[in-house]
Amino acid sequence: MSADNSSKQTRTWLDYFAYLAMRLMICLIQSVEIERMDRFCKIVARLLARKFRIRRGLVHENLTRVFPTWSASRMKEVEEGMWLHLLRLICEIAHAPRKIHRTNWYHYMRIPGRNVLLSHVFDARAKLFVTGHLGNFELAGFVNGIFGLPSTTIARELDNAYVHDFITKFRSTGGQHFLSKNSGAEAVQALLEEGGTLSLLADQDAGKRGVWVDFLGHPASCHKALALFTLSSGAPTMVVFNRRLNGPMKFELRSIDSVDPRNSNDPRMASVESITKWYNFCLEESIRNFPEQYWWVHRRWREPPDRLKKKAKQLAA
User: Fold this and answer.
1) pLDDT in tens, 82-136
2) What gap in Å lies between CA 164 and CA 127, rounded to an integer?
3) What is the pTM for the complete model shown?
4) DSSP for 28-95?
5) What value does the CA radius of gyration of the chain take, rounded to a whole number of Å?
6) Rounded CA gap, 149 and 174, in Å?
7) Which of 46, 49, 176, 204 is least surrounded by Cβ atoms within 10 Å, i.e. has the fewest?
8) Which residues pair with 199 in a beta bridge?
């Protein structure tokens, strides 16, 4: 057996054991009442924030960048709240298929201004839903599928194929569909031409070639595709936020704002940059209001290209 084949086989076994460990963890979570799990999550969140300090440098860097006037105690409070949010999210995902159904969803989720949201959903045209790593975005798609209103999400394939297949199966339980990031624009365009619904996480770094706009007060690279999908397909686009209320498994799915390409006089629809600025503004307003429900472990800000640095110096001069 060649060294490459041996290394590949070892990696396969390691991936499989990691998958088994994840399945055992999920079984354990499902075997315990979510209220009891929540008490355990609070203990673990405090340990992660104060004792183990996982990715603390990145979390502190992000919070300091966005909230430079915060005290050290406020920083620790939000960091601990973020870890609690992420742990609750895992538990909620594990329990959702057994708890939330078409006949009882209203026990777990409220939808203020639902007429606005439903008018968007039932539009005969293609439509886009935009959110970020904010609140429990996974359950928003899950519940949408329970309503019989499936959407398609673009997602990166995980390195562990076993874990990827398992998570994809969970996400598809509610009727969601998925496209790999490698599927190409043609697959997305075909979906939109058929009047499909596309859901996107909009706060992911797009590298040097992205469109750069301010996000939470600092330049961030955004994918041009989202705005191009809106402009090229004529799809109305809505920014949504599924925030957790008090405790686990209680949510509020809220429509933040929307744009419609039919409204040619809307200045937000003027260009790719204007649309990108609009949805980032919508997301950052919710993040500022509920900072503990944002993924500060997520490296959102990268080094901007030289042209932007030069422009910033010229403006400052």
Assistant:
1) 999 999 999 998 998 888 888 898 899 998 888 888 888 788 888 899 999 999 9
2) 26
3) 0.87
4) HHHHS-HHHHHHHHHHHHHHIIIII-TTHHHHHHHHHHH-TT--HHHHHHHHHHHHHHHHHHHHHHHH
5) 21
6) 9
7) 46
8) 129, 153
